[in-house]
Amino acid sequence: MDVNAIDRQALAAATDRAREAYAEFEAAGLKLDITRGKPSAEQLDLSEPMLTALQPGDHTASGVDVRNYGPPAPGLTELREIFAPLVGVPVDQLVARDNASLALMHQCVAMSFFHALPGGRDAWGGKPVKFLAPAPGYDRHFAVSVELGVELITVPMTDDGPDMAVVEELVRSDDSVKGMWCVPKYSNPTGATYSDETVRRLGAMETAADDFRIYWDNAYAVHHLTDEPAELADILEACAAAGNPDRAFVFASTSKVTFAGGGVSFFGSSPANVEWYLARDFVRAIGPDKVNQLRHVRFFGDTAGVEAHMRKHAEIIAPKFEAVRNALDHDLGPLGIAEWTDPKGGYFVSLDLVPGTAKRVVELAKAVGVALTPAGATYPYGNDPDDANLRIAPTLPPLAEVERAMKVLTTCVILATEETLG
Ligand code: PMP
């Protein structure tokens, strides 16, 4: 965005209108929230039949008594068969676990401090450990890192994924760079899907650390907003083809497919990494919640069942994303004071403002009852050096509330921009 090209007269005229609108919002006593990427009640209702999908006596076809402890160690085979093609991991390299893939990521980072990874000589404990953090990115990845003592190095995001020239230089030159966070499809928050070339380079790049791991958080693998799903290249294949078969840990979950509070999660990787993971995990827990796993199997039936279910999600949330786009196009487009993404999937829109205005926008919106994700949340340590990026999460509120909240947001953007430039 070229700040110098902003038409100041047009901005001044828009500011007059925005002041009037803001006074009306103040009087209206609003209470709106577009902070977190949660599914709406209507979306959760789609999975209600899952609650009654099991009948007494229902065991798997192979005779697993899901009520008891015990095999299969990687989780129910039937569930892994349904999701393997969707997350791009061979069934026998895919592990199914309980709700919250974030817990698996936390566990993998934590365990790496105590147990050497395949290919690595030592565990990470007692030495500096750094992860690359493409930003804007997912705040909870950053929180896990901070919690476990991992230093974050910010890498710029592009439309094709992280800036690979920067990534390649950092991993090649520093053996304390042990990992990297990636949301490769419909990225949180920009919506970008990594290009084939980015995936190839990630698999092939030379790393100083012999136990470098890509945390491939494919949280939005099946969350399309259009009829033309983005294609993501196979990271396990890209790593194996380049002679780095153990480089990637793949994560996914049904948190935004079935129930955010009662879904199932997945970990996929090379046979050596899966063995490493299962050995650690068996100490943590004797086994996952197989009852919930079977509930998911019965509810979906097969892979096509998941895809059909996700189309229903898209029908509910696509209009909300359209409302976001319309508001930004209409209110901010002609002024040239912001840029935003137009995601084809996932849960977020990323909004870039005139530097130095993002925090002020959040403050102005809060004062009239509209909660926005804190400015800076999309950057490591909550620190957006330009104070320019905001994340919009439109899925949770009803459409009318999204429209209202967007009107407030665009009004606050205009006011904050005029304050800063004026
Ligand atoms: N990864 C990303 C990129 C996410 O956006 C989210 C949810 N906001 C998660 C992981 C969390 O997933 P889970 O509920 O499986 O822990």
TrEMBL record:
One of its GO terms (molecular function) is transaminase activity. PANTHER family: AMINOTRANSFERASE, PUTATIVE-RELATED (PTHR43799), ASPARTATE AMINOTRANSFERASE (PTHR43799:SF1). InterPro entries: AspAT_Ic, PyrdxlP-dep_Trfase, PyrdxlP-dep_Trfase_major, PyrdxlP-dep_Trfase_small. It holds the Pfam family Asp_aminotransf. This is Aminotransferase class I/II-fold pyridoxal phosphate-dependent enzyme. It comes from Ammonicoccus fulvus. The keyword Lipid biosynthesis does not apply. Keywords: Aminotransferase, Transferase. Gene3D superfamilies: Aspartate Aminotransferase, domain 1, Type I PLP-dependent aspartate aminotransferase-like (Major domain). The lineage of its organism: Bacteria, Bacillati, Actinomycetota, Actinomycetes, Propionibacteriales. The keyword Transferase applies.
